[in-house]
DNA sequence: CCCTGATTCGC
DNA sequence: GCGAATCAGG
């Protein structure tokens, strides 16, 4: 693959949108994130610093700087909110408080989108699967909300309002938001739904 | 571990 | 110019 105008354009566009190099690489296809990053640099749009990008403070010794620069005039020549369309996702799980968005809005934001499980509610799931889940929960990595990634099981365990709340965190299956065990109880063939005899 | 971008350097 | 390997964080 070569950097055709179109590809470069898409690259610029996506980079401008704050997409990560890997995402861009995935989108373009035929290139690795390294290739993308390399290109980005060659194009000179590495950091989207406000105009200028002076950069280059190698490692110059701070040279003392005794008086601790008191003046300090302005310092925010960035009144440009940039219409980034960050898909600040609408609280996937509703772990009530607890979740503190430690991630600087920009970029990424776990796609997650997937519907979170209805929690072990009144499900009539195969006892088999349930047992498996209980078993797996012992091995769970008990990750916090922020530790979740695209390949960690996002199955929540416990009461979000308690300290006893965490996410499975085991390796999720390709394409699925959960690990094997949880995929098992999360996606029911829609048959065992049978109305329990009343 | 997973992921980021940044740099280097042989091609 | 290109991008894998490597580096430096989170």
Automatic annotation (TrEMBL):
Source organism, top-level taxon: Bacteria
InterPro entries for this protein: GcrA (IPR011681)
Stretches the record annotates as Disordered: 41-124
Pro residues composition-biased segments: 74-84
Biased composition range(s): Low complexity: 63-73, 88-107
Protein name: GcrA cell cycle regulator
Organism annotation: Leisingera caerulea (Phaeobacter caeruleus)
Record lineage: Bacteria, Pseudomonadati, Pseudomonadota, Alphaproteobacteria, Rhodobacterales
């Amino acid at each position: 693959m070569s950097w055709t105008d179109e590809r470069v354009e898409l690259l610029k566009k996506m980079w401008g949108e704050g997409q990560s190099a890997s995402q861009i690489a995935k989108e373009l296809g035929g290139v690795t994130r390294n290739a993308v990053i390399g290109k980005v640099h060659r194009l000179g749009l590495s950091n989207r610093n406000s105009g200028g990008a002076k950069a280059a403070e190698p490692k110059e010794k701070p040279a003392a700087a005794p008086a601790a620069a008191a003046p300090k005039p302005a310092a925010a020549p960035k009144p440009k909110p940039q219409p980034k369309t960050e898909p600040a996702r609408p609280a996937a799980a509703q772990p009530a408080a607890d979740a503190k968005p430690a991630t600087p809005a920009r970029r990424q934001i776990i796609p997650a989108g997937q519907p979170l499980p209805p929690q072990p509610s009144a499900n009539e799931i195969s006892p088999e699967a349930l047992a498996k889940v209980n078993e797996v929960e012992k091995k769970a990595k008990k990750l916090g909300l922020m530790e979740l990634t695209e390949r960690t099981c996002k199955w929540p365990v416990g009461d979000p309002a308690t300290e006893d709340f965490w996410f499975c965190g085991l390796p999720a299956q390709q394409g699925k938001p959960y690990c094997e065990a949880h995929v098992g109880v999360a996606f029911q063939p829609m048959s065992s739904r049978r109305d329990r005899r009343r």
